[in-house]
């Protein structure tokens, strides 16, 4: 059975159209359509239902899709083992991350493809929790949000949270001098955190809990940062997203002596076994680059 036709079928089933699958595979639409039709003739089974408006997968197609994914994954592992003996990686690596993490992940991917010229990478940043198995994604690099504990994962870096505000906001509303003072300010809540309007921090040996108020919130740290730059309030976000604005004077770091909770960047991959060589190479690169000062890697 032709593996190329199997890849085409999987791409069409996942993308939901021949056109989108052709874009993903860098093929013509007619080549994709011909590949699926040839596979159906070979099997004697209709895999897809086609109409002028939509494309859907048959019951037989759903069962065959799962087998295709397993077969292609096995073929990829066999190829990787053969290439590993020659010391070269090749193929496609599909990577997703949160949108906030793009500033850290993009430089890693750029270095990865420079190191491995035969590798191709499809980068899929999103704040939705991706089903890695169903979407055929090899690696997820995420900063915050929900974690799928059915996946294997490795920690990459602990990131500091800084509290910031724009000079114009502080001129109009005053500068907080203690953590407790934040309760009197307009707080821009980051809704990915478990308690976005409750701040738990430490001042020396003392734990402080502050109930916050504010009319603004966002699920994306970069949006919260932009609201803070615009003078809308006080925001707490990952340091690597804020350093450039602080150095440029667009934001002021507040209460540096207060230790806010850290967040972790982690890598997750599907399955319960060690990741394949192509995936492990990116994880190892991330661990090396993010070990000490992750903000130095981040794209402003």
CATH superfamily of the largest domain: Periplasmic binding protein-like II
Provide the CATH top-level class of the largest domain: Alpha Beta
Tally of domains = 3
Total count of helical runs of at least 4 residues: 9
Oligomer: single chain
End-to-end CA span: 48 Å
CATH topology call of the largest domain: D-Maltodextrin-Binding Protein, domain 2
Strand order of the largest sheet: 4-3-5-14-6
Poorly predicted ranges (pLDDT <50, ≥5 residues)? none
H/E series: HHHEEHEHEEEEHEEEEHEHEEH
| Helix share, percent | 25-40%
What's the Cα radius of gyration? Answer: 24 Å
Structural class: alpha/beta
Shape: elongated
Explained architecture:
The protein has 300 residues and is an alpha/beta fold. The chain has three domains: 85 residues, Orthogonal Bundle (Arc Repressor Mutant, subunit A); 103 residues, Periplasmic binding protein-like II (D-Maltodextrin-Binding Protein, domain 2, 3-Layer(aba) Sandwich); 101 residues, Periplasmic binding protein-like II (D-Maltodextrin-Binding Protein, domain 2), CATH 3.40.190.10. The protein contains nine helices and 14 strands. Helix 1 packs across helix 3. The longest helix is centred in the first third of the chain and has 28 residues. 30% of the residues are buried. The model has no long low-confidence stretch (mean pLDDT 86).
